[in-house]
Amino acid sequence: MTFFIRTFGCQMNVSDSEKMHQLLEERGWTAVGEAEADLIVVNSCAVRSRPQEKVFSYAGRFAGRKKIIIAGCVAQAEKENIFARKVKVNYVVGTHQFHRIGEIADEVRSGGRPGAATAFSRRWPELVPGSRCRSSRVTGFISVMEGCDNFCSYCIVPFTRGREKYRPMDAILCEAEALAGAGYPEIVLLGQNVNHWRDPRGASFAELLRRLAAIAPLGWIRFITSYPGYHEPELVEVMAACRGIARHVHFPAQSGSTRVLKRMNRAYSRSRYLGIIGSFRRAMPEMKFSSDFIVGFPGESEHDFQLTLSLLERVEYESIFSFVYSPRPHTRAAAWEPDVPAALAKERLLALQELQERIQLANNRRRIGETVEVLVTGRHPKKSAEMIGRSESQRVVNFASRTPVGTFTRVRITGAGPHSLRGEEVRTDEGK
Ligand code: SF4
User: What is the CATH number of domain 371-430?
Assistant: First the structure.
């Protein structure tokens, strides 16, 4: 009984795949490579139409030759309709049912009838994957909340991840201590609206971070994804007071125009968003941000788009994820007239990405001569004498070294490109 899990989409999906891996192994299944596997589990993403279709072109490669389970957001969005598709799928497992993956895999192996498990559940599936089932030896993913109650007019997530539910603080602290004990230098707290997390007894997200920052020897504590509409000033105070919390936040703006934000049903304005960024930077001048942007949203005017470009210039993001608007089933905006021509939307996307690349190159060049702390994440794929690492702001750094993966080191920056830095490792006795 062998299996292979292919994961599409976000870190939450990576974390769910780690848990499914654990559950299948507990059931006597063995993880192998894609070619050898009897069972392929495709953990899918439905955030835009392209990733959704990718799931079926991937599964199609094994149809008729292997057993196939489609899990995750596409399973939740399409449910039994998946069986009407050309690709022969054995089972469909929704986002709240992956804890049953072991029994479902056994059923599929014994030739059971195709089925779908897609019910939503308010219960938090308390599952902690063992190190062996984790996708990284450096970064430990910890889910703290799931679901979303915001219903942004373009987003399918509330329909695929359900209503918000929160994991109790004790379970989160326990998993973080186990990861720290296992030598993980970095943890990432996961949730669709992670800054809206609340402990059932009332403790806030900022309080959770304060407690996590006290767990030694954790290096960097990160969290993704924050919703600007849920920002609380206490978070800035805790981050400024606790050095272990990485001074980089992923803060999706989506648009620089308040008019478009209103149409997106995002509960903050351009000035509120910039105000929050300012509050972080007053407390921590070195604070860095990344963001998500959608261009070509129905009704987006040239002026709205110029406001998005000027937001990039104001915030100077470390990086952005940017996409042309993709109508999603069940969402309010899907019914709206797509009045931004595809060619113009594409043009805007290229202009946005070009501006961001110029901003990144200028910022990276300003770091030449600086010494930065770097977490070593791996060996350079082409240059055997080199290692790759990440800075606190998630910037890739390349440098000659033999420092082990998973440790922190210091690198003096000697060169910069738009997406990465180059440097020389600083000997521990130097620069003291
Ligand atoms: S906050 Fe909006 S964009 Fe984010 S998951 Fe919820 S509905 Fe989607």
Answer: 2.40.50.140
